[in-house]
Amino acid sequence: MTEILSVRNLSKTYPAQGKTLSVLNDINFEIQQGSTVSIVGPSGSGKTTLLGLCAGLDRASSGSVVLNGIKLDELNEDERARVRNQHVGFIFQNFQLLPTLTALENVMVPLELRGERNVKASALTLLEKVGLAARGHHYPSQLSGGEQQRVSLARAFSNSPKILFADEPTGNLDTETGQKVEKLLFELNRDAGTTLILVTHDLELASKTNRIIRLKGGAILNDSL
Amino acid sequence: MENKPLNISWLFLMAWRDSRKNKARLFLFISSMILGIAALVAIYGIGDNLTKDIDRQAATLIGADLDVRTNKSPDSAARKFTDSLRKQADAYSEEQSFPSMILFMKGGGTRLVQIRALSGNFPFYGDIETTPKSAAKTFRDKHDVLVDKTLMLQYQANVGDSVQIGKVNFRIAGILNQAPGQTGFSSTIAPSVFMPLRYLKATNLAQKGSRINYNFYYKLKPQTDVDAMVTRLTPAFERHDLDQDTIKSKKESTGRSFSDVTKFLSLVGFIALLLGCIGVASAVHIYVKEKMQSIAILRCMGLSSKQAFLIFLIQITIIGFIGAVAGAALGSIIQQVLPIVFKDFLPLELQVTISWKAIGQGILLGVIISILFSLLPLISIRKVSPLNTIRVSDHTESTSKDPWRWFVYLLIFGFITCFARLQLEGWRQTLVFSISLVIGFIVLYGVAAASVWLIRKFFPSSWSYIWRQGLSNLYRPNNQTTILVLSIGLGTTFICTLFFVQSILMDRITLSTSENQPNMVIFDIQSKQRAAITELTKSEGLPLIQEVPIVTMRLQEINGVNAMENKNDSIRKYSNRAYNRELRVTFRDSLTSSERLIEGKWQGQAQDTAHISLEQGYAKSAHLSIGDRLVFNVQGVMVPAIVGSIREVDWNRVQTNFRLVFPKGVIDDAPQFHVLVTRVPNAAASAAFQQKVVSTYPNVSIIDLALILNVLDEILNKIGFVIRFMASFSIITGLIVLISSVLISKYQRMQESVLLRTIGASSLQVFMITALEYFFLGSIAAFTGIVLALIGNWGLAKFSFEVPFSPDWLTVVSIFFSISLLTTLIGVLNSRSALNRPPLEILRKNA
Ligand SMILES: Nc1ncnc2c1ncn2[C@@H]1O[C@H](COP(=O)(O)OP(=O)(O)OP(=O)(O)O)[C@@H](O)[C@H]1O
Ligand SMILES: [Mg+2]
C-alpha cells in the first residue's frame, strides 16, 4: 500500500496578545491509501486545525504536509486550491452548501471547476446515491440539516477524491440520520478506495475506522496504529 | 503543475446562478446609479442635438457667406475695401443697426428697440420669417418696416398701422417672427425693427456719436473658398478696423458657447453620478462581505482566487450594464422634455432626436463606473481564505496592504480627474475639484473613525440599556458606521453645496429693485436738448437722480506708442483692443457713492494735464497703471492725460458707471451727449413720460428698467429651473443611496434584533435601539457633511464668485434634521420586519 498523507513535525501557532499560542505541537503520522482514520480528542485540542492543515486550507507554522506526493507547504494558495480540487473532498460539521445554488448545482460545482462539461448526469447519479435525486432543484434553505449534509456528501464525492476529510460529519444530525451518512461514507471508502479521515466525538463511529489518533493539547496522545 | 484554464463560460454561469437569489440586492446596487446616468445622457443628448442642429443650420445663423462688421463709421478707405469685396460676391447687403425709440402712432406707446436698417436681399440663407409671409420681401421696396412680434403684442399693433422712427412715419408691413441668429431672449430684451436702409438718413438718427453697428453681408460666388479668402484678407481687415464672421467661425463660436452650458450641466450631472458611485461602492462592499462564506466554500473546492474575483466582477459588470441601459433610457426620455426649458436661449430650432452617441457614452460611463467603484470591495475577494469554512476568522489578511488597493484608488482618482477635466476649463480647476473630493472623502472617513473611537473611549456607561445598546451598535463588529457616514455625509455635502451655490447665483444676479432706486435711464440726449428734457422731467414731478455728460473718444497713444507702433512691436506692450475701443467718458469733480479709490489720487479740477481715473478692471485689461501718459482722440482733437488714480466700481448698482473719468476743466466743451437717470412710480407714469419725451425728441432713447427686470426675472426663473432640475437628480440620488445603504445594513442588523427578541426584548426596546443607532449615524454623517459643505462653499464664494459667504442657517439646520430623521426613519422602516414577525420565521430564513 502507498502513502497518501504524510505529516512531519507539524506545528501551528497563533499570535495571541503579544505571546504565541501553540495549537498544534510537533505532530507526526503517515496514512496509507484506502485506510480509514478517525481523529478524536477533547474540545479545543486542535482537531479541526489539524484537518485544515492536512487538507491544505491553511499553512503550518512549521513542519510539512505531503498529500499524494505533493508538498503542500511549497504551494501558494491558488496551487493548493488546485490540489484540493483534484484530490481532496471535504465535509463540514455545518454543511457549508452554497446558499445561492440548488442542491444539484452544489454537487456539480467541483466537477465544473475542473473544466468538465455535461456533468449534470453524474451529479444526479450522486444525488440519487444519497437519496435526494428528487430534491435537486431545491435550494439549501429548503432542505433539512440531514438532507443538506447528504448533499454536501454527494458534493464531496463528486470529484472522486483520493482522500476525504470530514469534520464531525454527523455532529449536527440525529442518530438515525447520522448512521445513514456514516454508511454512505464507508461505502465510498469501500467502493472507490477513498481514504477517509474524520474528526468525531462519537466513539462508536471512531471504533469503526482502521485507526484512531487521539489528540490532547495539540499533541498526539495515542495512535492506535 | 500546468496552468489552470480560467473557464470563462463557467464563470459566467456561476455569476448568473449566484445572482438568481440576489436580484433585489443587485437592483439596489444599480438603482443609485440610474439617475446620474440619466442626467448625463439627457444633457449629452441635448448637446449632441445642438451640435447637429448648429451644423445643419449654421448658414442660417449668419445668413451670408461673409459678414464684415465694424462699430465705427467706416472711413472712405474702409468703404472702398468693403466695396471691392463685392466683386467676388453674387449678392450683397448692408445693414446699420442701433438702439432707438419707436412710437406707435395708434396707442402712443414708445419703446426702445434695435433698429436694423437693411439694403439688398439679406439673408441669403434662411429667411426673415414674417406674417404675412410676403412682408419679408415687400417692405424693402416700400416705406415699410417689420416689427418684432413681442412688440406687436405688447402695443396691440396691427399690420398696416404706423410707427414713428426718428421724425419719420413708417407703415408696418408685417410681424417679424424670426430673423437669422436671433434667440427668444434677445428679441425680448431688444426687439428688432427692420427698415429699408435708404430711409435711414431721413430719420436723422444716424448722427455722429450714435452707437451704430455696420454690417456688410456677402453671398460669395459658389466656388469661393471663404476661409482661405478671409485668411488672405486678414491684414486688410485689421488695417481698416473691421471684424468678420464666416459660416464656419459663426458655427464655432455658437457651438462653443453652448458647449460651455452643456459642460456646466454635465458637471452637475456628474455630481449626481458620483453620489451614485458611493452608493454602488457601499452596496457592493456589503454584498461582498456577505458572500465571503460562499467564496470560502468555493475556495475549499478548488476555486482559484482569480476565478472568485472574476465571478463577481462579471456579475457586477452585467448588473452595471443593465443599470446603465436603464439610466440611458430614462435619460433619453428626459432629453425629449428638457428643450421646453432651453428653447428661448437657442438661436436655432432644436430638433430633438434620440442621440445614440449620448446613449453609448452613458452606457459606457455606467459600466466603467460600476466596475471602478466595485473594484475596491471586489479585490478583497481574492484574499478570502478557505479557512473561513471551518471558522469565521477575522484574521483575513488585511487588505490595506494590498498594492492593488492603491492602484484602484489611483484609477478612481484618475477617472474622476479626467472626467472633470472634460467638463471644466483648465487643469487647475480640475485638480481643485478632484482634490477637494478626495479631502472630503478623507475627512468623512476620519470623522467616522474618530467618532467610533470617541464613543468607545468615553462610553456613557451610566445611560440606560437601550441608549447604550443603540450607541454601542456604532462600533460593535459588523457595524456600518464608516460606510454610512461616508455615503450619507458625502451626499449631504453635495446637497448642501447645491443649495448654497444656487443661492449665491440667485443673489448675485438679483438686482436691487427696492424703493427709491432709479428705474429709468434716458440717454442720447444732445447738449441743446438737455435743459428742456431736465425741465420736462421736473415738471412731471420725477426726481433728477443723476445727470451725466458723455464724451466719446478713442485712445490714440499710450506712453508715446500709437496703435500702429504697438501692433508692429514684437513685444506688444499694450492690448490692441485698448486702442480700437470706442470709449464713453464722463467728467466730474467727485467720486459717486458706487465708487471707491483704490490707488493714486483723485483730481476733481484739472490743473494743466488732466489726471484721469480708471476703473480697475479696465486698467488691468488695457495694461495701464498710475503715471502712464495717454493721448485721446476726442472726435478729431488730441487731448493728453495722465493716469492719476484707479477706482473700484460697484457695477451692480443701477446708475451710470464709467471706465474712464476726466476731471472738470478739460473736455467740458467737447461734443457730448447726456444721460439722465430718474425714477418713475409706475408703468402708466412711465408710458406717459416716455411718450412725451419721444414725441418731442425722437433721437432720445429710454430704458425702462422695470421692463428689463421683468425679462431678467424670466431668464433667471428659467436658469433657476434648469439648475434646480439638475440638482434634483443629485438629491434624489442621495436619497436612493441613503435608502440602499440603510437597507443593506439591515441584513446585518436583522439577525441581531431577532436574537434580542428571542431572548426576551420587547418590540419597543428593539425599535428604540434601532432608531437610536440610525439617529446617531445620521446625525454624525449629516453634521460632518454640512461642515464640509460650509468650508467648501466658503472657499467657492470667496475665491470663485468673490462674494461674501452668508449661508442661510435655517436651510442648514433643516438639512441637518431632515437627513438625520430621514436616516432614522428609513432605518426603522427597514427593520420593522424584525419587529412584527415571529422570531422563528426570520431565524429560519437567515439560516
Ligand atoms: N485564529 C485563531 N486564533 C487564535 N486561536 C485559535 C484560532 N483558531 C483556533 N484557535 C485555537 O486553537 C485551538 C484548537 O482549535 P480547534 O478548532 O482545532 O479545536 P477542536 O479540537 O476542533 O475543538 P472542537 O472539538 O471544539 O471543535 C483552540 O483552543 C482555539 O481557541
Ligand atoms: Mg473542531
Total domain units of chain B: 4
Average pLDDT for all residues of chain A:
89
Tally the helices of chain A: 7
Q: What oligomeric state do these chains adopt? A: heterodimer
The number of distinct structural domains of chain A comes to 1
Which two chains have the most extensive interface, and how many residues on each? A-B, 35 and 34 residues
Mean pLDDT score of chain B: 82
Class derived from helix and strand content of chain A: alpha/beta
Q: Report the bound ligands by name, code or SMILES.
A: adenosine-5'-triphosphate, magnesium ion
- N-to-C terminal Cα separation of chain B, in Å? 39 Å
Strand order of the largest sheet of chain B: 2-3-8-5-7-6
Radius of gyration of chain B: 35 Å
The number of distinct β-strands of chain A equals 10
Q: What portion of the residues of chain B fall into strands of 2 or more residues? A: 15-25%
Keywords (chain A): ATP-binding, Nucleotide-binding, Translocase, Transport
Organism (chain A): Pedobacter quisquiliarum
Family (chain A): Belongs to the ABC transporter superfamily. Macrolide exporter (TC 3.A.1.122) family.
Protein name (chain A): ABC transporter ATP-binding protein
General description of the model:
Chain A has 7 helices and 10 strands. By secondary structure, chain A is of the alpha/beta class. Chain A has one domain: P-loop containing nucleotide triphosphate hydrolases (Rossmann fold), CATH 3.40.50. In chain A, the strands form 2 sheets. A 6-stranded mixed β-sheet of chain A has the order 6-7-8-3-9-10, with helices on both faces. A 4-stranded antiparallel β-sheet of chain A has the order 2-1-4-5, with helices on one face. The model of chain A has no long low-confidence stretch (mean pLDDT 89). Chain B has 25 helices and 21 strands. The longest helix of chain B has 54 residues. Chains A and B meet through helix 1, helix 2 and helix 3 of A and helix 1, helix 9 and helix 10 of B. Magnesium ion (MG) binds next to helix 1 of chain A. Chain A: It comes from Pedobacter quisquiliarum.
